[in-house]
Design brief:
Length: about 220
Amino acid sequence: MISEKLNNLQNDIPENVTLVAVSKTKPIEDLKDAFEAGQRAFGENKVQEMCTKWEHLPKEIEWHFIGHLQRNKVKYLASFVGLIHGVESFRLLKEINKQAKKNDRTIEVLLQFFIANEETKFGLSFEEAKTMLQSDEFKSLDNVCIRGVMGMATFTDEKEQIKREFSGLKKIHQELSTDFFNEQTNFDVISMGMSGDYKIAIEEGSTMIRLGSSIFGKRD
Ligand SMILES: *Cc1c(COP(=O)(O)O)cnc(C)c1O
């Protein structure tokens, strides 16, 4: 049962780690069950699906967009999205800023880094991120707030490799934090860890884990 799984997980993870329930492909009823069990942060990776679920569920829910976000779709979620995990280009960040401004709000985002040994995973390199953060154009973006970093490890059974990739992301976070953010800016999120690797992620310093199948069961 969903509520039981959530309770067990909540007992299992440290207090400073936020659990995002990844509800992609799952029916509204499953999200309702999780909501009733106290879950507030939900992760989706398709814009249309997230918008439909947002319409049908309580407005207290914090919606996390965790997928690859196309620039032309930012406008559909800009009024309500809580956190966009996957910012992997300056152009996307600028579009988010533009749509946030139209909605008279600030949108919180994470910079996605490429940490895996796989070509299919999106993300910035450390150098790209630094160049962006140093630029005057970046400093003029008043309607986005960068809350931290996000990354996905390689899909493998090699624990040491996963550990290395997560600790690499932690290091990126630390360096950016020192160079570009001060204590007032709340650059405090490290989003890493999924159902298969969240324990390693927590050991390596994760503050936000994104779990789907371990809460809702396998996806089709
Ligand atoms: C689907 C997905 C998850 C959750 O995956 P599980 O293995 O089901 O926990 C986490 N993060 C991202 C970016 C995803 O797309």
